[in-house]
UniProtKB/TrEMBL annotation:
GO molecular function: ATP binding; phosphoribosyl-ATP diphosphatase activity
Name this protein carries in UniProt: Phosphoribosyl-ATP pyrophosphatase
Keyword field contains Cell membrane: no
Organism: Nisaea acidiphila
UniProt enzyme class: hydrolase
Lineage: Bacteria, Pseudomonadati, Pseudomonadota, Alphaproteobacteria, Rhodospirillales
Length: 106
């Protein structure tokens, strides 16, 4: 796959592991651990949902960016590479959601 902004951002995020938490927000998240990172992702998801309901496209855009950033931090903390997610999405392409869910439940 061609390099995407999310791939580049992931590389920057991943490079912050072990960095000084006083000089990097990302390093501060890593220092708090995967559970706290997941909790922060949940907060960002709720904020994104709220903006989706209110209908303010500009705020939804900003919250979506925050959500994606925190998702990438969680992937990095968990050792999940973006390419693995892109491959999973590609595998599901062209398959109905109903069919995909049925395959997961077997």
């Amino acid at each position: 796959m061609s390099e995407h902004v999310l791939d580049r951002l992931y590389e920057v995020i991943d490079s912050r592991k072990g960095a000084d938490p006083e000089s990097s927000y990302t390093a501060k998240l890593f220092a708090k651990g995967q559970k706290k990172i997941a909790e922060k992702l949940g907060e960002e998801a709720v904020e994104t949902v709220i903006e989706g309901v209110t209908g303010d496209a500009e705020k939804l855009t900003a919250e979506s960016a925050d959500l994606l950033y925190h998702l990438l931090v969680l992937w990095s903390a968990a050792g999940v590479k973006p390419d693995a997610v892109w491959q999973e999405l590609a595998r599901r392409q062209g398959m109905s959601g109903i069919e995909e869910k049925a395959r997961r439940n077997t």
